[in-house]
Amino acid sequence: MDLYGTQKVNEKGHLVIGGTDAVDLAHVYGTPLVVYDTALFRKRAAGFQETFKKMGIQAQVAYASKAFSSIAIYELAAQEGLSLDVVSGGELFTAAKADFPRERIHFHGNNKSYMELNYAFDEKIGCIVVDNFLELSMVKEIAATRRQQMKVLLRVTPGVEAHTHEFITTGQEDSKFGFDLKNGQADKAFGLAYDAPYLQLLGLHCHIGSQIFETDAFTHAAEALMEKMQVWKESYSFVCTVLNLGGGFGIRYTEEDHPLEPAQYVAEMAEVVLELSKSWNYPLPEIWIEPGRSLVGDAGTTLYTAGSEKEVPGVRTYIAVDGGMSDNIRPALYNANYTAAVANRMTAPHDTTVTIAGKCCESGDKLIVDAKLANVTEGDILAVFCTGAYTYSMAGNYNRFPRPAVIFAEEGQHQLVIRRETYEDITRLDLSLQQKVRKES
Known about the structure:
The chain folds into two domains: 8-37 and 298-427, Lyase, Ornithine Decarboxylase, Chain A, domain 1; 108-291, TIM Barrel, CATH 3.20.20.10. It is α/β, with parallel strands linked by helices and 441 residues long. It has helices at residues 22-29, 38-55, 71-79, 89-97, 114-123, 133-146, 185-194, 216-236, 262-279, 293-296, 330-334, 423-427, and strands spanning 8-9, 15-17, 20-21, 33-37, 59-64, 83-86, 105-107, 127-130, 150-157, 179-180, 199-205, 242-244, 286-289, 300-312, 316-321, 340-342, 352-357, 366-373, 381-385, 405-410, 413-418.
């Protein structure tokens, strides 16, 4: 069984994450519990940054925090010198609570509200990635009214389709995101932004999808954006100083996944930009990227406690855990696949086929179908790997289940960074029905 980051098996046969026994963590904090191997996060961040440095390219590596948002992860990203990609007022507020350097915050989203945009101006963030004409008009108006400068990128759809799940492709022409690069929308947006006195147009942005394993789609996108930038240079003598190529770099969830090392994605994209800049005599732009899943995905492991067992003779055996689609919606939403192990018996043969079911009242609440595990008994701790991205951030209170606790573990130390929700937390926004006063006849 392949392990991730600092994970190993100790002399007790227990899974160890960040130098700490996972079974002990489950006993201390309860389950479900999301454990982040922060050393792996740091390693991934350094890998992206060092690749650019070795190539002599000015760059910003922005953590795409929709993958997992919290004060603590923002603080960790700041420690590692990362920038930050936020997509809502809520994520921006969290970044402010974490005192993340405002000049390194980039604000995304396809339907930013007037209130959210004003908030971005209040916080004096580093850049707004403009997604559509309505937003562009609002940003221009707010900047002019406040007489406040704002840096902007134009998000474009380059017409590149990546080989990934249809729900998480975003770079093709039929997308809710961005200005189309081929039908004149991007040129019109350029004119509007270029003429705005309080906007500083930095350049172009694209994001072609998520969980992508090959580099061809990234290099084609880089070529498409560089070609448009060259046209604007020739036609308007305008030079884009920033080229943001987004994220979407795949990770390994199961043995069937074969992602490249993060550095290889970066190197091949950057090489295209270097070559085109040289051949066209185009000033080399600063390259920005936005890894999210590839920073936190395989750094996260969710621990569950096994409960009931149901055998359907000749069909399958179900093992239920104390979580499910309420803390990890991806299997139900995307048919996403995961790998699991019995954390308290890692050295036992994992040769029993079972289906790990959640406790939500939905037949589709299955975390892993036909998982290979050691023989599971009630009370065992199950570890589901690579749950660091798009799990807690997409978690909900279906069936009024509380969201799990989240901890960071590194070098034998562990720290609670999000406490477990309580029943009181779940009901605190509820209001009692106001009874009508019956009038006396």
